[in-house]
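tool=predict chain=A
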Amino acid sequence: ETLYKNGGVYVVIGGAGGIGEVWSEYVIRMYEAKVIWIGRREKDAKIQAKIDRLASVGPTPSYIVADATDQEELYRAYEEIKQQYGHIHGIVHSAIVLLDKSLANMDEERFRAGLRVKVDVSVNIAEVFEQEPLDFVLFFSSMNSFVKAAGQSNYVAGCIFKDAFASQLALEWPCAVKVMNWGYWGTVGTVASEEYQRRMQKRGVGSIEPPEAMEALEALLIGPMNQLAFAKMTTSSTWIHVNRAHSFVMM
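tool=predict ok
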């Protein structure tokens, strides 16, 4: 069973990022999906290279330049997609901005920059796609919703809002609204660096790999829970301490 449709049309906000690209490759390869990426930056050689690579495994992804924190820009992108494809089956919020700094040294502009990509984009998705008969909306969040990550107050605040907002949206919308709180991705994404890898290894945290992540998402989309967390541990660790009634997929 799956919520993905063969030949389905899927919009990925932040799709050119690491996890967005992994998800796109999966649905293109497995379901011949038509994927549209929405991103703030102009299409450059790096983005084009990603598009060309995915084109070798299935339908070529499209790229629309739009700032999804701006509702008018997101609505313009929505109209463009509707005009070209006629229907949208799913939305993925995979956008992220990491601007780490201790809260004592972080100015308001920096705090807002990390926060808006979670808060404003989530709200704008609800406003712009409200009337679209979607199969699902998938929010990519983080295990940082449940821990005190030093230097990431802006990112953590955004993730907590995203989780709560999606939970409410799941009560109001007829389609599936799901949240995946990812653990550490060590091979793709914004923290796929040697420094982060060393730091995580010391804490007993392993790297999530694409095949197992996509399998977990399949389970989330068809399962009874609206929110799951997925993390890999290499040793016994106190990294995760949860006091709330959430479900976790642990490896």
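The two ends are 23 Å apart (CA to CA). Residues 108-128 form the longest helix (21 residues).
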